[in-house]
């Protein structure tokens, strides 16, 4: 039924879009109903969870092609977008801030995906005497730069009465940070997702969490060239909607099946994978929403924190790289 509904929505969209394109001046030469020639290059972080969940929910039969590329962080995805190697990136609120800091972004945030903020933690290795963030004063603390880890580590330090300068902060990629944590190169590590799951499996303990610090807004960013193409815009909106519907399918009694998929990809037990999946969806069901003033204001708060930290040289007005251009297409297919 879910598949049928989506196909019906896609069919309706195909009927409507030529009329919208015909009103678009120069854009009318390209019909957005013709998606067969579109290839979207889309980024994923940690493991290709979005690709996997679409396949699991039988929603991967897109009328356009999707080329997924795996990255260790959303910051790398935004770098790839700016380099012309990706069309669409998924990230937290933080990477677009730094990608736009030079004042010449060639991308826009086009949609928001509400999602869990669990597994966003500061961890210490087995045997560490540290029991909280205050215990990290003077210690070597790894973090994934220009990501959620950078932000929640800064906020956790402030809550503990510490300054950024009170720790020896070491920017590291997730895999490098795990190796340094296990090898004694750092005393703690702020990271997210699969790297935190792996750290716990290796005996690490949590001393701080970003669960209640992060907004739960994860952003879809697209190259400006995507927004200029009615067909690519329609395909992007359709893909984002499919991911939302795939998560709804999992929540509708299919947690066991997707837990098996997750367990295989993340090298954990099926029981643990299901526990994490259920906890994540209970905390905040994964679903897309359109751009609004509140989502822009949420990222502005994050950008202001990085200005305060000194990571941004000057104030950044984030609304300069947001757009509502995808809102109409996305509302039609959600």
TrEMBL record:
InterPro entries hit by this protein: Solute-binding_3/MltF_N, SsuA/THI5
Signal peptide residue numbers: 1-23
Location of the Solute-binding protein family 3/N-terminal domain: 39-251
Coiled-coil stretches: none
Keywords for the protein's UniProt record, in alphabetical order: Signal
Family classification: Belongs to the bacterial solute-binding protein SsuA/TauA family.
Protein name per its UniProtKB record: ABC transporter substrate-binding protein
Source organism: Streptomyces olivochromogenes
């Amino acid at each position: 039924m879910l598949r049928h509904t989506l196909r019906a929505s896609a069919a309706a969209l195909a009927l409507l879009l030529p009329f919208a394109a015909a009103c678009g001046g120069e854009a009318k030469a390209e019909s957005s109903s013709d998606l067969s020639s579109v290839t979207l290059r889309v980024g994923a972080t940690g493991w290709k969870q979005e690709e996997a969940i679409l396949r699991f929910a039988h929603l991967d039969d897109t009328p356009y092609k999707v080329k997924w590329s795996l990255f260790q962080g959303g910051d790398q995805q935004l770098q790839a977008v700016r380099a012309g190697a990706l069309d669409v990136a998924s990230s937290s609120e933080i990477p677009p801030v730094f990608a736009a800091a030079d004042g010449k972004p060639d991308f826009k945030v086009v949609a928001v995906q509400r999602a869990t903020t669990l597994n966003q933690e500061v961890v210490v290795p087995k045997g560490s005497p540290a029991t909280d963030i205050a215990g990290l004063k003077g210690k070597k603390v790894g973090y994934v730069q220009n990501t959620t880890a950078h932000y929640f580590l800064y906020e956790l330090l402030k809550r503990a009465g510490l300054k950024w300068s009170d720790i020896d902060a070491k920017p590291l990629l997730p895999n490098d940070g795990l190796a340094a944590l296990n090898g004694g190169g750092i005393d703690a590590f702020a990271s997210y997702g699969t790297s935190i799951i792996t750290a716990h499996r290796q005996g690490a303990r949590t001393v701080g969490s970003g669960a209640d610090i992060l907004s739960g807004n994860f952003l879809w960013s697209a190259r400006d060239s995507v927004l200029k193409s009615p067909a690519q815009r329609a395909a992007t909106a359709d893909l984002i909607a499919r991911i939302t519907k795939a998560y709804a399918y999992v929540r509708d009694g299919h947690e066991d099946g997707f837990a098996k998929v997750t367990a295989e990809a993340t090298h954990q037990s099926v029981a643990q994978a299901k526990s994490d999946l259920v906890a994540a969806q209970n905390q905040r069901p994964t679903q897309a929403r359109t751009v609004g003033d509140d989502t822009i204001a949420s990222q502005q708060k994050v950008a202001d924190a990085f200005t305060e930290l000194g990571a941004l040289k000057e104030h950044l007005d984030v609304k300069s790289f947001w757009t509502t251009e995808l809102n109409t297409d996305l509302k039609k297919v959600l």
